[in-house]
Amino acid sequence: MEKAVSENNNLPILKNVLLKTDNNQIRISTTNLDLAISKSILGKIIEEGGITVPFSTLYSIVNNSDSERISLEQDNNTLILKTDNYEAKIQGLNEEEFPIIPKIENSKNYLEIEPAILKNSILKVLSAAQISEIRPEISGILLDFQLTILKLAATDSFRLAEKTLASNQFGANFNRGFKIIIPLKTTQEILRVFKENQSISIFVDSNQILLKTNDLELISRLIDGVYPDYEQIIPKDIETEIQVEREPLINAVKLVSSFSGKNNDIKLKVKDKKILEIYSASQYLGENHYLVPAKVNGPDFKEVAFNWRYLMDGLKALDSEKIIFGLNGENKPAILKSPEDVSYFYILMPIKNT
Question: Whole-prediction pTM value?
Fold first, then answer.
């Protein structure tokens, strides 16, 4: 929950966590005004109450305590923590000073999905996203609900990743589709805080998203704007299709990247329709190349250069033993995908020759 704590010096209360009793449970909430996380834990409630205290102090005490149980007492604006052999008094603030945790306007229509499926889908596309002050609409992940399918997509203008979920991988009672842009920081929190044992219900309204389980709620602002129409850059045809073992290609990229230049560039070319050569050169270091067996369909090409880090992100996101590398010349988008899984692809732009 610490990621929802803000270091805002103008609002020091945002460094605090709110503790509040709620029907035989203790509700713990943090917020940075863009994102709020609330967790409910079981406890024996003797008297109702609420207080807000510095998160870092409370976290340090709880994280380092070896006691299975901790007693919490409130004395005005002081929180007293006790175990069998420990006692601490934390100066807090009245709960009324804590920002109101926003509520979602729509509480009827929702998506329901297993955490493993959602988190795996986010991880598939996350590396292609990047925070941009110039284009805030790409500073997040697109969630595109189309009634019978659910798509997640991300781009930083140099690469694009898309994951499609079929209707048997989620449930929904929406009667129309929608598109929303979830901030990157929010998606990273989704990966971190949700466990695998409870399904997640997702609610959306005009500017917020709520993800909740039985004991955990995460509510976040959405990014305002229209996501780029990326369909137009997805290659409709592939000139040269290279099928190659994924692990050898990853090893090749790792080794050859040691000699890449300031643009992190490595070059690929085909030899005799059976070998994919990956190489890089530096006027200061020298040069190196790696040969990987491959099956090549389509015309030969001179060479294509890629940012090796971007290429590696795409290779890591694929799960299959073999991958298909689709090339359309040295200046058009290339595509990485699995021959067994049509639900995911990763597109990256070559580095233009200068």
Answer: 0.91
Tokens (6 digits) for 3:
């990621």
- CATH number for 306: 3.10.150.10
Q: Are 211 and 190 in contact (CB under 8 A)?
A: yes
Residue 7 and residue 88 share a domain: yes
Residue type present at position 314: G
pLDDT tens readout for residues 211-270: 999 999 999 999 999 999 999 899 989 999 999 999 999 999 999 998 887 778 999 999
Residue 277 lies in a domain: yes
Q: Which two tokens stand for residue 86?
A: 């420990």
pLDDT at 3 over 70: no
In angstroms, the CA 246 to CA 240 distance is 17
44 residue type, one letter: K
Structural domain including 44 reads: 2-97
Quick one: 92 and 124 in the same domain? no
Cβ neighbours around 238 below 10 Å, total? 17
Q: Where among 204, 230, 256 does a domain terminate?
A: 230
The residue behind tokens 């805080």 is 193
Q: Please indicate, yes or no, whether residues 126 and 62 belong to a single structural domain of this protein.
A: no
CB neighbours (10 Å) of residue 303?
13
Q: Which amino acid is at 288?
A: N
Among the candidates 71, 97, 123, a domain finishes at 97
Element (H, E) at 151: strand 149-155
Could you tell me if 129 and 138 are in contact, meaning their C-beta atoms sit under 8 angstroms apart? Answer: yes
CA distances from 278 to 209, 262, 292, 334 (A): 43, 17, 8, 15
Residue type, 342: V
